[in-house]
Design brief:
- It is a single chain.
- With 105 residues, this protein is α+β, with helices and mostly antiparallel strands.
- It is 34% helix and 32% strand.
- It has a 5-stranded antiparallel β-sheet, with helices on one face.
- A hairpin with a 2-residue loop joins strand 2 and strand 3.
- The chain starts with a helix and ends with a strand.
- About 6% of the residues have low confidence.
């Protein structure tokens, strides 16, 4: 194996290492989100928020965002429950089903 081949392999491995953990997740523009609701492609945010809050009694919403990852939408809500524990609830915005509900660090 010559020096050019070794250099090429090292470059490929370096690039592959930077791609580990890479996702194509982007926040959806608020104007686009409103259009998605109007077109009935996603549930209204008030409804999605109720689904998320139903998972944790007496919780309050801290943040929420609609994201697009590889062409699929997810709605993420951060909640703080009555004990002060922070939760991240991820929903499918097309039907309101809970995808993930986990305690946030």
């Amino acid at each position: 194996m010559n020096i050019e081949q070794v250099s090429l392999i090292a470059s490929i491995l370096s690039l592959a290492g930077t791609m580990i953990g890479y996702t194509d997740t982007i926040s959806v523009d608020p104007n686009q989100a409103v259009e998605l609701v109007k077109e009935d492609k996603i549930q209204p945010f008030e409804q999605l928020n109720r689904f998320a809050l139903a998972k944790h009694a007496n919780a309050t919403m801290e943040t929420s965002k609609l994201e697009s990852e590889y062409g699929h939408y997810t709605y993420k809500v951060e909640l703080r429950d009555a004990q002060g524990i922070q939760w991240e609830v991820e929903l499918d915005p097309t039907n309101g089903k809970i995808i993930r509900d986990q305690q946030d660090d």
